[in-house]
Design a protein that fits this description.
Layout (H helix, E strand, L loop, with lengths): L3 H4 L21 H10 L1 H10 L4 H4 L6
Helix pairs in contact: 2-3
Length: 63
């Protein structure tokens, strides 16, 4: 498993993986998966910052 530091070196400013490209598509689902596993709260913050619908990315389904 990779960590966020391996995907985004500390010398580079990480880009929000939830921001869509010019074509309207998500650029990297693997980056979203990695950050959601490593730091779920940060992933939610990034999702909000990108203007994405939280219920689509993080459904609150009771188990």
């Amino acid at each position: 498993m990779t960590t966020i530091g391996e995907k985004w070196p500390s010398s580079a400013q990480p880009e929000n993986p939830f921001k869509r490209g010019e074509d309207g598509k998500i650029r990297s689902l693997s980056a979203i998966t990695a950050i959601a596993r490593e730091n779920p709260r940060r992933a939610i913050e990034l999702c909000k910052a990108a203007g994405e619908d939280l219920n689509k990315w993080f459904p609150m389904n009771p188990r």
